[in-house]
Amino acid sequence: MKTLLVLLLIIPIVRLYGQDNGDCKVLMPSLNGDYHGGCKKGLAQGQGTATGTDTYSGGFRNGYPNGSGIYTWSSGNVYKGDWFMGKRDGNGVFTGHMDGKDTVMAGVWKHDIYIGPKPSPPKVTTKYNVVSTSFVRNGDANKITISFYQNAIVNFIESLEITASSGNEVQSGNYTNIYDIRFPFNCKINYQSWNSLKTQLYDCILEFEIYEPGSWDLRVGN
What we know:
Layout: H1 2-17, E1 34-40, E2 43-51, E3 55-61, E4 64-72, E5 78-84, E6 87-98, E7 101-110, E8 113-116, E9 123-128, E10 132-139, E11 143-150, E12 153-154, E13 158-164, E14 168-172, E15 175-179, E16 185-194, E17 201-210, E18 215-221
Parallel strand pairs: 11-18
Antiparallel strand pairs: 1-2, 2-3, 3-4, 4-5, 5-6, 6-7, 7-8, 9-17, 10-18, 11-12, 11-15, 13-16, 14-15, 16-17
């Protein structure tokens, strides 16, 4: 009885996650054929491998390549990287033969189109009496928000001067927003900050460059 109970518990799991899912559909016509991998509600879901005219091995969602995976065309061309609902989207590398030439395209893809090489991360070129910097890209608007902290608490700095290569500066409390910036974006910040005991005022300098377009948050720590 114990053996029978264990088998009854295992069978549904095998059906859901087993490697042979003949009834599970892949919705890309070029991959419609043989599929082995995860399945949910009759569609490829999770990790799997699909083979039709072409072959794909990696993540699936709702029947489409999604996440990280390797796609191999019947021609022998290969793309290894990020996917979103059946389209190359994110970071990836295409290796193959195009226009009579061996081709490698490594970088950023959007809606199945190669955008270009992955931009370099933000670079701090000058830092004087600045403890830390944190750059976070959080959207596509061409702007930057700069804020100042000391021991994770808002730092009320003095004598702030910002020299930027482009954009319109707007102050909002302890935040400085620079809108309509163009990339690459260069910026130099001069200001004064008290030490943690509020006994001495230091001159501070921060200069940086941002290459990738987008909406950025910069947290400066003292």
